[in-house]
UniProtKB/TrEMBL annotation:
<protein>
    <submittedName>
        <fullName>LLM class flavin-dependent oxidoreductase</fullName>
    </submittedName>
</protein>
<feature type="domain" description="Luciferase-like">
    <location>
        <begin position="1"/>
        <end position="293"/>
    </location>
</feature>
<dbReference type="InterPro" id="IPR019949">
    <property type="entry name" value="CmoO-like"/>
</dbReference>
<dbReference type="InterPro" id="IPR050766">
    <property type="entry name" value="Bact_Lucif_Oxidored"/>
</dbReference>
<comment type="similarity">
    <text>To bacterial alkanal monooxygenase alpha and beta chains.</text>
</comment>
<dbReference type="GO" id="GO:0005829">
    <property type="term" value="C:cytosol"/>
</dbReference>
<dbReference type="GO" id="GO:0016705">
    <property type="term" value="F:oxidoreductase activity, acting on paired donors, with incorporation or reduction of molecular oxygen"/>
</dbReference>
<dbReference type="InterPro" id="IPR011251">
    <property type="entry name" value="Luciferase-like_dom"/>
</dbReference>
<dbReference type="Pfam" id="PF00296">
    <property type="entry name" value="Bac_luciferase"/>
</dbReference>
<dbReference type="InterPro" id="IPR036661">
    <property type="entry name" value="Luciferase-like_sf"/>
</dbReference>
Amino acid sequence: MKLSILDQSPISSNQTAGEALNESMKLAQVGERLGYERIWMTEHHDLPGLACSAPEVMLSYIGAKTKTIRLGTGAVLLPHYKSYKVAEVHHQLATLFPGRIDLGIGRAPGGSAEVTNALNDNFLQNVYKMPDLVEELLCYLDDQIPKVSASPLPDISPTPWLLGTSAKSASLAGEHGISYVFGQFMSDEDGPTIVQKYLDAFTPRDRGQKPGIIVTISAICAETTEKAEEIALSSLIWQLQKEKGEGKQGVPSIQDAKDYPLSDKEKERFEDMKQRMIIGGPNEAKAEIKEIQTKNQANEIMIMTTTYSPQDRVRSYELIAEEVLSTDNKTLS
């Protein structure tokens, strides 16, 4: 099984956005050293506490600081943009970093209604046209549009992936013969059923091509379950704060999270969110990851970890890699 990283560049309450973005670069370096297959940067707009609004810019920065780990947009929100420009950007990245670029495609707005209008006057219309947009983008990636090339044309094209949480997105990926990422960490849907929709619809784009499946999860691992649960408090309380329109200062410290008062309704919500995450020691994390992989017929598990301390985040990825990938890496300083 392969492991990968999904990073939102969360800003902790004691950080600047620049510091958070720099921690994303450092995380990519750690991931490369530990044997993670890829790191993908998310796209969000005007969301307090998240620093990455332009993942393609971050990929250039990370690519220059790493050597082998694959780099991806996870996802570029296609309804906001022209397919030609998206292809150009990723072709240039693939020219700079040969054989390392993934193009993750999504359809979410990535921000508020006001932000959506600021980005695009026709977002909803483009969402309805998503199948056509995907087809057009793939044609540009394959250089199949007459008289127009999304140059520079790299020797190794970006690998397209479609990200989603529904049977509709799974079928779309399968019909176009591209790999699929199921976002379990943000979905109430039944993952195995959705993945099977993808497999049933899969039609290879190229001879000999096989389906590819990644499942994205939220996980926090520490030396003990008790420590992991303590570290996870910051992420869980921050999610609750954001749902209330708070949390604009970023991920709270563990102490601030402990001190945050919760109503009975919020306590129920807290427990519900906790159940959606993997929180525990290395053995627990490995068992749950393996179960998710098996149930979803996944080739790869992509992990998103949000903590207050960058050191706790690195340690979580390290412990999971050592347990799941059976690496011989020693504790990073």
